[in-house]
Specification:
The longest helix has 13 residues, at about 75-85. Helix content is about 25%, strand content about 25%. By secondary structure, it is α/β, with parallel strands linked by helices. It is built from 4 helices and 6 strands, in the order H-E-E-E-E-H-E-H-E-H. Belongs to the small GTPase superfamily. Arf family. This is ADP-ribosylation factor 4.
Length: about 150
Amino acid sequence: MYFLAQVFKLDSYFFFFVIVSFIGFNVETVEYKNICFTVWDVGGQDKIRPLWRHYFQNTQGLIFVVDSNDRERVQEAAEELQKMLQEDELRDAVLLVFANKQDLPNAMAISEITDKLTIQNLRHRTWYVQATCATQGTGLYEGLDWLSNELSKR
């Protein structure tokens, strides 16, 4: 949960954390801009991916974090994202992609990430790709602002 914790160290917005660990997953409840987020950090390890679908019910927004510097695994990330987006429980969820590690010299640009993840083909889904650097906090608020705005329209 370092990524999300980093977001909330940087600002004075009211927030609170409820952290429960089980089966390697974490859940946090965070209030940001008058929206209460329940965030499930499900991790990306191969062994636990089949369990992801058990956490999709009632999901309104999906934050997908991709390592912008990992060109070898971006195709795998694209395949996993497309699998998730096929799930019926996520049919109405907005998609925020955090293109992380943008501080590294060989990081893929947003346009390349968008292309590699085939996000531009999502015709009936609201989506946004935000460049981020979790260790510096860059881009995190912009992404959460976008997500908050989209969810408040519902």
